[in-house]
Amino acid sequence: MNTVVTSKEEILEASRELVRSQGWSSISVRSVAAACDVSVGSIYNYFDSKADLVAATVESVWCEIFRLPSDSAAFQDIQVCVAWMYGRIAYGCEHYPGFFTLHSLGFMHEEKDDGKQRMQQAWQHVLNGLSSVLRRDPNIRRDAFTESFTVEQFADVLFSLMLSALLRQDSDPSAVLEIVRRTLY
Q1: Whose CB among 22, 47, 107, 170 lies 3.0–4.6 Å from 26's, allowing a Cys bridge?
Q2: Residue 98 or residue 34, greater confidence
């Protein structure tokens, strides 16, 4: 058994690896403890329950999928950003099969509110990022947004379209990019 104190990030890394290799049903306090080579009690030092561990793993997966690129060019132009997001969604589908679908089906059956709150925080982070890119993009018409049609509303529409395409397993961003071009340029 590992006598070195395991960090929260190491636990989440082991949890993500279990999800990648064995699926979401493999996550339990015992399986994660075994993967970290620590006692079950060590996991409970960081997570109050299995539901807390799963919710933190979900949040960790969202953060990995939408990890910021080293090149900030993706965040200067909304078309480049949308293409980048589709690429990250494809990465998520490849590395975490069923992740997005499980969210749509509400797989956080234990302590649902915490899971929903963490997912909403991750989504809000994405929406804030889209809004920020929309504000910075020099190619967008100056009159594209108004008091009744805001940047935030359009970011929400874009993200909703991307999530819908994801659930349909449509990985082609061209339809969303066409909406961006026709609406904003």
Answers
A1: 22
A2: 34
